[in-house]
């Protein structure tokens, strides 16, 4: 077993004037190291397309998760999908990415734009085998994974972007490949990369998309642990035990909260050095402790991180704010959203006397709820979370 993992992100925009998206993506985890991703594109747009693409992705992902072979799943869905009598095409097209044991990827593509793979920052011409299933041409591939491989799957709304507007023949697949080759080296996470692609499509459509457009990005990376300490323990006698466990863990260390920082500094035999640099009006300044990667204020900062996390797992409209921000919340977000794959939370249950002021909107329950909501969001991002309470 290797130490690779898959970072998965996707983003969609609706056809202009439609409430529902005609594209649908399902992600199903099959154990710790295997995952199935299905991108389905329903014919046309609106309600009918949304229903057809949702059914297609659900049927495929459910059958595959139940242990049916890819050939059986494709045969079933290919035989099930009707063909439009007017246009002569299937009512839904699909792309399947099946990551197996984080060792190789099985790719199945039917009538969606051909996905592309960037390897070592350049387009990789992976092998494709054409098969006929139920009178439908299916492309099948098997690709052994390497660190930093990037898979990009799209609905046809992406290469069609800009037709008659920015480009005569749309934003061609080759253009999208060149676009991604130029930004791949920036190290963005999969969700941000998918958002960048779809935002560019929206721009090329003049903010009035002529089709639903979806991009799904999958990055292969090594597992990277991260540790976050938030609040002192309820029993002061547990200070050293909590700190010992926290600092013994592999990976970067983030300390949140003034009292927590004081305890951590004492344990390390160092001092807390405030920066007093207000990088954001909403987030208190960070501090520094030798031996700690990041030191921030507690509840207000974590609440801002939670705001970014909630946006990240939905529309991801705030990614530029935390991606380039220099405040504590932005720095934590980059560490947790982009760098970390496995996150250890060390949460103290001590009640802060300063938070008992009835004029302040902060109390113990809010603090615990912040941790729960944040860990829930991080799990939806595909992070492995371990929580320890003291």
Characterize this entry briefly:
The chain is of the alpha+beta class. 33% of the residues lie in helices and 27% in strands.
What secondary-structure arrangement, pairings included, does this model have?
Elements: E1 4-13, E2 23-29, E3 35-42, H1 46-65, H2 70-80, E4 92-100, E5 104-110, E6 116-119, E7 122-124, E8 129-133, E9 136-144, E10 150-154, H3 173-183, H4 190-204, E11 213-222, E12 225-230, H5 239-248, E13 252-256, H6 258-268, E14 273-274, E15 287-288, E16 294-296, H7 299-312, H8 319-324, H9 328-339, E17 342-347, H10 364-380, E18 384-389
Helix pairs in contact: 1-2, 7-9, 7-10
Please provide a written account of the structure:
The chain contains 10 helices and 18 strands. The strands form 4 sheets. It has a 6-stranded antiparallel sheet. The chain folds into 2 domains: 4-222, Phosphatase 2c, domain 1 (4-Layer Sandwich); 225-389, no CATH class. The two termini are 33 Å apart. Helices cover 33% and strands 27% of the residues.
List descriptors.
390 residues, elongated, 10 helices, alpha+beta, Phosphatase 2c, domain 1, 33% helix, six-stranded antiparallel sheet
């Amino acid at each position: 077993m290797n130490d690779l993992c898959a970072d998965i992100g996707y983003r969609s925009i609706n056809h202009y004037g439609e409430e529902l998206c005609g594209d649908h993506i399902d992600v199903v985890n099959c154990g710790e190291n295997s995952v199935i991703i299905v991108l389905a594109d329903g014919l046309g747009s609106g309600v009918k397309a949304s229903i057809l693409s949702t059914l297609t992705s659900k049927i495929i992902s459910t059958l595959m998760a139940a242990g049916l072979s890819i050939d059986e799943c494709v045969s079933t869905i290919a035989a099930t999908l009707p063909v439009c009598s007017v246009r002569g095409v299937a009512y839904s097209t699909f792309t399947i990415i099946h990551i197996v044991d984080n060792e190789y990827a099985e790719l199945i593509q039917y009538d969606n734009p051909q996905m592309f793979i960037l390897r070592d920052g350049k387009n990789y011409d992976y092998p494709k085998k054409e098969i006929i299933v139920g009178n439908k041409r299916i492309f099948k591939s098997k690709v052994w994974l390497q660190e930093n491989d990037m898979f990009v799957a799209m609905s046809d709304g992406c290469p069609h972007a800009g037709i008659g507007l920015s480009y005569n023949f749309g934003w061609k697949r080759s253009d999208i490949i060149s676009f991604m080759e130029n930004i791949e080296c920036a190290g963005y996470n999969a969700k941000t990369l998918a958002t960048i692609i779809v935002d560019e499509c929206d721009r090329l459509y003049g903010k009035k998309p002529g089709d639903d457009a979806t991009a799904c990005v999958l990055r292969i990376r090594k597992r990277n642990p991260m540790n976050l300490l938030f609040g002192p323990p309820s029993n002061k006698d547990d200070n050293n035990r909590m700190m010992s466990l926290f600092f013994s863990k592999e990976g970067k260390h983030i300390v949140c909260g003034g009292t927590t920082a004081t305890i951590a500094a004492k344990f390390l035999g160092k001092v807390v050095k405030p920066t007093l640099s207000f990088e954001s009006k909403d987030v208190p300044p960070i501090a520094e402790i030798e031996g700690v990667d990041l030191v921030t204020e507690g509840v207000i900062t974590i609440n801002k991180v939670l705001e970014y996390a909630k946006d990240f797992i939905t529309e991801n409209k705030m990614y530029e704010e935390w991606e380039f921000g220099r405040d504590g919340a932005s720095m934590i977000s980059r560490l947790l959203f982009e760098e970390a794959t496995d996150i250890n939370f060390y949460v103290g249950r001590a009640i802060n006397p300063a938070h008992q002021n009835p004029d302040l909107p902060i109390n113990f329950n809010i603090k615990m709820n912040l941790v729960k909501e944040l860990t829930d969001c991080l799990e939806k991002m595909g992070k492995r979370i371990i929580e320890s309470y003291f």
